[in-house]
Amino acid sequence: MQSRWLIIIGGILAAAAGALAFITMPQEKPEALVYDPPRALAPFKIESTATGGTVDNEALKGQWTLLFTGYTYCPDICPTTLSSLKTILPQLQAHADVPVKVWMISVDPQRDSLARLTEYTGYFGRHFVGVRAEHPQLFPFVRDLGLMYSVPEEGETNYLVNHSAAIILVNPNGRRLAIFNATHEPGAIPTVDMEQLVRDFAILAG
């Protein structure tokens, strides 16, 4: 009888020790820059391919959203980023209990009409949304996200737009939660490490 109680007590102590070890074990942390607490976005109004009209901050609520700057005439960063995000989107969705969407913020309002954006983002799937605005509304919106872009000289028609390659993660409360910065390697276009994005998202959305 005594040995039986010793076994039970030993089992309880072993379970308690295991639980304590789990609690004190260093928890995995994301490599992305995480905003703690998440940051509210300044009020904005911007055109969206999702509605065919204007949306505001409410459009970011109830979903996880990955935002990045781009434009339809972009020769490299934008199509590469969109294609990569399309590939990993099912993995991201597996870690989320609400939809995961991608917003491409056009930084070329002169050439990117809503119709052109609709056709461009539609190629990648229904979870991809194009948004646009004229520079007076666009620049503050992009700057508030912590991103940037260049504005072409007046009268230019054939030009490239320099813009950030980072991706912003907005949580289902419509607040900025993290930024995934692009890696810059000689001879290669700057891109976000998508495998790391998946790992970090699993932690942040968990």
UniProtKB/TrEMBL annotation:
Source species: Idiomarina baltica OS145
Q: What is this protein called?
A: Uncharacterized secreted protein of SCO1/SenC/PrrC family protein
Record domain Thioredoxin: where = 35-203
PROSITE patterns listed in its UniProt record: THIOREDOXIN_2
What's in the keyword line of the UniProt record?
Answer: Copper
Superkingdom assignment: Bacteria
Q: Which Pfam families match?
A: SCO1-SenC
Family affiliation: Belongs to the SCO1/2 family.
